[in-house]
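look at this stuff:

>
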Amino acid sequence: MASHDPFELKYTDKKNYEPVPLEVARLERDDQYLKIEDLTKVYSNGFEAVSGINVKMYNGQIFALLGHNGAGKSTMISMLTGLMGRTAGRARLFGNDLFSDMDDARKTMGVCPQHDVLFDLLTPEEHLDIFYDFKGGDKSMKKEEL
C-alpha cells in the first residue's frame, strides 16, 4: 500500500479522503508516476502564472491538462520539460528528482500538444511512431512502447 505523505493530505479535507484503488497504490509503491508538489511560477514583474500545482500522473495512463487560456497549462508543461525554470515546488518522476536530472527525465516522458501537430497528414499513431524514432527508442521495443 502507498504511504500517506503528510504533504499529500495538506489540502485534503479528511472527511472526503478515500484510499486509492489497489492498482494505483501499487504504482505509487513502485514509484511508477510523476508527482508534482506546489509547483509555482512567478515572473519578475510579479505575475503568478502557476500557483502551487499538486498532481500525480501514473505510468500507463493518459493525462489531459485542460483549462482556459491563460490558466498556466503551457507554463506548467514548460517547467516540467525544462524549457523554463520554476519559482518553487518539486517534482519526482519514477522516484527521481525531475528538476535535478532533466536529461534522464526526458528519456521517459513526452508531450503531445493539442494543436500545431507536426504533420497534418499523419495520424496520431504515426506521430508517436516518428517521434519514437526521433528520440532514439529501441526498435525492438517500439510496438510494445507505443
Summary: Residues 6-109 form a domain with the Rossmann fold fold (CATH 3.40.50.300). The mean pLDDT is 84. Strands lie at 33-42, 48-58, 88-93, 96-97. The longest strand covers residues 48-58.
